[in-house]
Amino acid sequence: MKPRIWLAMLAVYIAWGSTYLAIRVAIETIPPFLMAGTRFLIAGFILYAWRRLAGDARPSRLEWRSASIVGLLLLVGGNGGVVWAEQWVTSGIAALIVASAPLMMALIDLLRPGGRKPGWVASFGLLVGFSGIILLVSPTAGQGGSLDLNMSGITVLLLASFLWAAGSLYNRGAALPKSPLLGTGMEMLIGSAGLFLLGTLTGEWSRLELTAISLRSLVGLAYLVVGGALVGFVAYTWLLRVAPTPLVATYAYVNPLIAILIGNLLLAEPLSPRLLLSALVILSAVALTNLERARRPKTPQVAPLLHGNN
User: Fold this and answer.
1) pTM of the predicted protein model
2) For the chain, give me the number of helices (H) and strands (E)?
3) What is the residue-wise DSSP string for 53-72?
4) In sequence order, which ranges of 99-150 are alpha helices (DSSP H)?
5) Cα dist. 201→69, 155, 204, 304 in Å?
6) Per-domain residue ranges for the chain?
7) pLDDT of 123-165, one tens digit each?
């Protein structure tokens, strides 16, 4: 079993760590919201049809409502923000900011009525994590190695991370199907509808030129469907059943590093000391926050990072 577990972990690391680069490539010639909507429509249909044919019960109206809320928060608000921002922000920086979602979850828990109050470990993690974000995005944080930051893109990424955290918290107690893959397929179908609506409202259909779509962008889109949405989720769902949870959770720390490295290797994205230091600070803070969560009584598994993961 151990070789299979490590093979599945490698699949999750590579599939979700490389989706940020695939997004950046796919939106070179495909409008971002229409690209993401197409991705989740195809992947959602495959997952939903597969699980229904495998014998999963038809979802109830309540389950569809819950899946709609989760899908809109995670995929329209979360992933939609990422694909839009990556028009101006490098894939590595996008992955790093998205990695702060657990910090956002802890902050929302702290502020909402009846939420869980963090202990001193998580509180220290929050302080360290947001300091790391400030170090990354602040124009006065030092100019060693230009990151060429677009503040509109950074702002949207932070909002996307916040919406992803809100959707993940809602997912804890939502009435969703027992089959994680069926629920994911439902969320993808709802999310695709929301993304297509966003694309319509922002005029993307008028900018879509089918003859201008490059083979490179089509390969990126295909990779997002097969690698990011299908292989990644199937491997992740299997791992949740057979592997130790702390091991599975390491994807949250490994994926941003993979995104930063392959962005530098394949797209020549800047790899500055400031970026590496920010990554070390933010991911250390996420580890501290998750350490305290792991000590609490077990709660339902929240949705993994699709941004890239998404």
Assistant:
1) 0.86
2) 16, 0
3) HTTPPPPPHHHHHHHHHHHI
4) 101-111, 120-137
5) 20, 21, 8, 28
6) 2-295
7) 888 888 889 888 888 765 444 445 567 889 999 999 999 998 8
